Amino acid sequence: MTDQIRRASRSVCANLGEAWRKRRYPAHFVSKLSDAESEAEECRVFLEFAVACGYLPPEEQAQLDQDYDHILSQLVAMINRPDQWTVRSD
Description:
Number of domains: 1
Number of helices: 3
Helix content: over 70%
CATH superfamily: 23S rRNA-intervening sequence
Strand content: under 5%
Order of helices and strands: HHH
């Protein structure tokens, strides 16, 4: 479970980096942000499993969940307004 949380959390960052480099292409930019959003939610699910299995104290999970909630809200804002982030090729 630890490895899966690590992979998913790293994937959030990797997908965000890839989205940033693809910001000339709005559809690809949004697609990579969507991938980052999915990976962030996957982290949240595994953190819930970690609490249920007794691997993580509920207080730590609550703080991490709050952190991921903030990350997800920012990703959704970027997805909903890609024109504010993409590069125009005029």
